[in-house]
Amino acid sequence: MRASSNPEVTRLAHAVLQPGFVGTTAPDWVRRGIGEGLESVVLFGRNIVDGEQVAALTARLRAENSDLVIAIDEEAGDVTRIEALSGATRPGNLALGTVDDVALTERVAHDVGRELHAAGVSLNYAPSADVNSNALNPVIGVRSFGARTDVVSRHTAAWIRGLQSAGVAACAKHFPGHGDTAVDSHHGLPKVAAGAEEIARAALPPFIAAMEAGVRAVMTAHLLVPAYDPVLPATLSRRILVDLLREELGFTGLVVTDAIEMGAVADRYGIGGATVKALSAGADAVCVGGENAGQDVTEGLVDAVVRAVDQGELTEERLTEAAARVRRFAAWSGERARAVRPDDTRSDIGLAAARRAIRVRRRPGAPDVLPVSRDVHVAEFSPAMSLAVDGHTPWGLAAPLRGLRPTTTSVRLTEVDVDHAGLALEHQVLAPATGRVLIVVVRDAARHRWVSDAVASLLRRRPDAVVVEMGFPPGGGNDPADLVTFGATRVSGIAAAEVVTGSLATSPMVGSV
Question: What is the pTM of this model?
Answer without folding.
Answer: 0.94
